[in-house]
TrEMBL record:
It comes from Heyndrickxia shackletonii. This is Polyketide cyclase. InterPro entries: START-like_dom_sf (IPR023393).
């Protein structure tokens, strides 16, 4: 199995409207298809009263000719600063959103620490790793653009 650790940074100028709470709420929701191109998610199991334990199934259509699907369970929620999940399926590992604000900028750092379980991806990892990173970056950029548009923020970095 091939291991990947990606760190993505999104920076938004939120001087016009959006708050950290709104960014957290949108990232916490399972309604990605409303704002993130090529991404769908559905809730399979509810979590506790705070949402911890919620199980979702996510589907990512990538820029390369393949789709990734995996289940993810919410493991930590600290509004408006943190969302953490554990992934199972074609990708296994953890994903963590760190959300902060400085002046009029909202920063989202996403750390995706996973292994691939698709046989072909593991075989191709030694030569395709740079393309898999590029693909990840493209999917995450689509998320940044969609979130900025959805919350009427200017994307500064992402």
């Amino acid at each position: 199995m091939a291991h990947y650790k990606f760190e993505t940074k999104w920076v938004f100028d939120a001087s016009s409207s959006a708050t950290m709470d709104q960014v957290w709420d949108v990232l916490r929701s399972h309604e990605y298809e409303k704002w993130w191109e090529g991404v769908k998610a559905k809730v399979l199991e509810s979590g506790d009263e705070s949402g911890i334990g919620e199980l979702r199934e996510s589907f990512f259509k990538t820029k390369l000719p393949y789709t990734l699907s995996f289940k993810n369970r919410l493991t930590a929620l600290e509004k408006p600063h943190l969302i953490q999940l554990e992934a199972y399926g074609e990708l296994e590992g953890t994903g963590t959103y760190h959300i902060s604000k400085s002046n009029k900028l909202i920063e989202v750092i996403y750390i995706w620490d996973v292994i691939t379980t698709k046989h072909w991806m593991n075989i191709m990892a030694p030569i395709m790793r740079p393309m898999f990173k590029w693909n990840h970056d493209q999917v995450m950029h689509q998320g940044a653009v969609g979130l900025a548009k959805h919350l009427n923020m200017k994307l500064v970095q992402g």
